[in-house]
């Protein structure tokens, strides 16, 4: 009996060890359990920003890339929106290049007024070309990524050309004032050399006013959310992505808005006010009507240029309740419409230039 008891005690640890081995799952069992749990579990919802980034094969934390959303709220209609974009761009290019070609070929058109028209045509071509090709890539191929350097470069050239164009419109208003109010002194006040100098001053002013914008932005830290709700990089839209203090950016943008748009619009309004007063004093009814029609057409083009730009700048700061797609569409109209209208208003409506354009377009 004692031998049996001793044997039982020897077998007890072995039995316990065998039971423990049965209760402890093997590595294969653990892997199977994990696979079953993974299959039955519900994955964590993907956040909207991550979904957007996944769509373009980018990560929100990528420090070298911004994302342009296009026209927010109308993403499903991007392909349709691209049609008026591309048509407007092509018409604007054709019209402005035609003006440059005709004025360049015809020696009789080498006059201050036509040099100003050529300068305006160059800014129209540049402004739309800085934006539309990239926007079309976004609409057609969903290529909505842009590097930080590329974004700041686009912003610099776009704002520089915009301020330069404003300066040219002021010079054109002054040119019309001298031509109508002091026609006998026109050739002595405004020469080709004088127009060139005024254009250079306008370019220097544009560069000096715009240069601080990318410099101020380059010092800011940007958050993980690097999404620009627009088709191009605009100063305040980029600044709003920063996690830092953008008070200086806001103040500088506001000062430039009122210095450029406010001062230039005041000078243009003063010039055309004096022109209209002089026109109303013309005794010839035909000349009176012709001059008045020309002034109204010029004022319309200038309003199409200034009003959307002013609206865009102010809504970035004060228009929180405005739908994003309205803001973006007006932004783009200000880039697309003037390049189409300017060759018509300033070019084709001028008889001398219209005759020269007809000489080339109607040639058999």
From TrEMBL:
All copies of domain G-protein coupled receptors family 1 profile, residue ranges: 95-346
Organism field: Chelonia mydas (Green sea-turtle)
Top-level taxon of the source organism: Eukaryota
Localization per Swiss-Prot or TrEMBL: Membrane
GO cellular component terms, A-Z: plasma membrane
Alphabetically ordered keywords of this record: Membrane, Olfaction, Receptor, Sensory transduction, Transducer, Transmembrane, Transmembrane helix
Range of residues in the leader sequence: none
Annotated protein name in UniProt: Olfactory receptor 52D1
Primary localization class, coarse: membrane
Gene3D superfamilies tied to this protein: Rhodopsin 7-helix transmembrane proteins
Bilayer topology term: Multi-pass membrane protein
Transmembrane segments: 80-102, 114-143, 155-174, 195-217, 251-279, 291-308, 328-348
Described purpose of this protein according to its UniProt entry: Odorant receptor.
Listed InterPro entries: GPCR_Rhodpsn, GPCR_Rhodpsn_7TM, Olfact_rcpt, OR51/52/56-like
């Amino acid at each position: 009996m004692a031998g049996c008891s001793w044997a039982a005690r020897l077998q007890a640890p072995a039995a316990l060890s065998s039971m423990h081995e049965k209760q402890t799952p093997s590595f294969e069992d653990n892997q199977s359990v994990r696979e079953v749990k993974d299959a039955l579990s519900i994955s964590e919802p993907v956040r909207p920003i991550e979904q957007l980034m996944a769509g373009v094969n980018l990560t929100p934390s990528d420090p070298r890339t911004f994302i342009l959303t296009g026209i927010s709220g109308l993403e499903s209609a991007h392909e349709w929106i691209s049609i008026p974009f591309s048509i407007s761009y092509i018409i604007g290019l054709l019209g402005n290049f035609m003006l440059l070609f005709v004025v360049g070929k015809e020696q009789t058109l080498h006059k201050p007024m036509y040099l100003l028209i050529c300068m305006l045509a160059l800014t129209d071509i540049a402004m739309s070309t800085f934006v539309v090709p990239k926007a079309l890539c976004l609409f057609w191929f969903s290529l909505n990524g842009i590097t930080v350097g590329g974004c700041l470069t686009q912003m610099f050239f776009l704002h520089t050309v915009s301020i330069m164009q404003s300066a040219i419109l002021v010079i054109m208003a002054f040119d019309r004032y001298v031509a109508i109010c002091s026609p006998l002194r026109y050739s002595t006040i405004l020469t080709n050399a004088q127009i060139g100098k005024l254009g250079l001053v306008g370019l220097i002013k544009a560069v000096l006013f715009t240069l601080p914008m990318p410099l101020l932005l380059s010092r800011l830290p940007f958050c993980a959310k690097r999404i620009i709700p627009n088709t191009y990089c605009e100063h305040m839209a980029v600044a709003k992505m920063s996690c830092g203090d953008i008070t200086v950016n806001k103040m500088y943008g506001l000062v430039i808005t009122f210095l450029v748009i406010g001062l230039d619009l005041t000078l243009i309004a003063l010039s055309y006010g004096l022109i209209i007063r002089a026109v109303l004093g013309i005794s010839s009814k035909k000349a009176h009507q012709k001059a008045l029609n020309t002034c109204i057409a010029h004022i319309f083009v200038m309003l199409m240029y200034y009003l959307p730009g002013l609206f865009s700048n102010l809504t970035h700061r004060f228009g929180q309740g405005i739908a994003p797609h309205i803001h973006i569409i007006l932004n783009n109209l200000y880039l697309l419409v003037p390049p189409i209208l300017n060759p018509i208003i300033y070019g084709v409506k001028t008889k001398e230039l219209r005759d020269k354009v007809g000489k080339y377009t109607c040639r058999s």
